[in-house]
Amino acid sequence: MSFLGKFFSRGGNKYVGIDFGSHELKAVQFGGSSRGAVLEHVYRVSTPANGIKDGVVSDPQLVGEALRQLVADGAFTARKTISAVSGPTVVVRQVTMPVMSERELRDSTKYEAERFLPYSVDEAQIDAKILGKADDGQNMDVLIVAAQKDLVTSQMSALQFAGLTPSVVEVEPFSMVRAMIASDDPQYEQNIALINVGAASTSINITKGGHVPFTRNVPIGGNAITKAIANGLNVSMEDAEKMKREKARILSQQDTGPVPPTVTRIFNVITPPLTELVTEVHKSLDYFRTRFRGETIESVILGGGSSRLENLDAFLSHELGLPVVLASPLERSIHDPADFPADFLRDAGPSMIVAAGLGKRDLASDGRAGAAA
User: Fold this and answer.
1) Which residues, 6 or more positions from 97, have their beta carbon under 8 angstroms from its beta carbon?
2) How far apart are CA 344 and CA 337, in angstroms?
3) Which terminus of the chain faces fewer neighbouring Cβ atoms within 10 Å, N or C?
């Protein structure tokens, strides 16, 4: 099993891409063809209660049993998997180092990573990639990626309990780039913000040219909105979750028609966490612009299960002053409409952005599969 290193390779294997979400376990499998990736299987199940905490699989056997059921019910045929790690302990950092060989870089990466890791390098899985020479010709730009070992080993244990073979673990932003921005896409050479709104947290990432020079995770997501509904309307978390799915809507001045009182009450109580989320996104984009002077952000791709909150895309677009589109990774693949109706692909797509990117990672027939590296 390789951590990240194989991310920079390309081959002909077929994988199940598995997204370990705190709310749902999601999986996607593609096949290769001369025309590109062919969607074969999509499925998701609820994550067992307390099975994943802070990104770490806290009960690998329990989560493994859920994965086994997911693979069986979803009729997946591949047994090799690619999964992704995310969260505050995952670090993606572009640095400048003296020009050296790949071998010398392997020896130097550990010492370079010590400068910015919030934990000991002995606790970390670390990988690095030379991006190219810096403008001065004496140095080079290097992408360093690190994660705590517990994040990686806990996923491996759960997959093994499920009877699956963990092949590669990468970091979440790379899979989202692969799912949504191909190397021949006009957006490929633009700075695009990829925002993944999950249940427990939101990841904010900037990509350009297949690289991800900036990534940040904030502890605000769908759970915060559900909790706001539960507290504000004095209902259970289960009822609040149902209300969020069925009745929650972000209102604006363009809502000229009558609005049901319950919808208005829900909007009022979810406004604080939504405002906090927007503030954190603003701070992240501003920091990127400051750090990479002269760079502008062109647009936003919004993914994650909580991105389906009605009007969230329009709300973010208004607040950020940028075009915002919902992620559509499943619709971008070749598929049989009889097996995958358009409504299903559209509704499931945003939450599958990570799993879809993982499943497409190593398709030999898709020349763009490794673009995010």
Assistant:
1) 105, 108, 112, 139, 140, 142
2) 10
3) N
Inter-residue contact 142 to 92 (CB < 8 Å): no
Instruction: Describe the strand order of the beta sheet including 2-3 as a list of residue ranges.
Output: 2-3, 165-171, 80-85, 16-20, 24-31, 38-46
E strands of the chain, at which residues? 2-3, 16-20, 24-31, 38-46, 52-53, 56-57, 80-85, 91-98, 124-133, 139-148, 165-171, 191-197, 202-208, 211-218, 297-303, 324-326
Tally DSSP H helices, then E strands, for the chain: 10, 16
Distances (CA, A) of 84 to 101, 111, 155: 28, 24, 9
345 class by beta-carbon count within 10 Å (0-12 exposed, 13-18 middle, 19+ buried): buried
Q: Give phi and psi for 226, each to the nearest 5.
A: -60, -45
Indicate if the pLDDT at residue 370 is higher than 50: no
294: confidence class by pLDDT, cuts 50, 70, 90? confident
Per DSSP, 97 falls in state: E
**pTM for the structure as a whole:** 0.90
The structure tokens listed for 324 are 């915002």
For domain 2-224+273-359, give its CATH number from 3.30.420.300, 3.30.420.40, 1.20.950.20, 2.40.10.340.
3.30.420.40
> In a 3-state reduction of DSSP, which class is residue 168?
strand
Mean pLDDT estimate for the chain: 90
pLDDT at 8 over 50: no
Residue showing tokens 């799912």? 179
**What are the residue ranges spanned by the domains of the chain?**
2-224+273-359
Question: How many percent of the chain have pLDDT more than 90?
Answer: 68
Name which residue leads in pLDDT, 110 or 324: 324
C-alpha–C-alpha distance, residues 22 and 2, integer Å: 24
Asked if residue 280 lies in contact with residue 218, where contact means CB atoms within 8 angstroms, the answer is yes
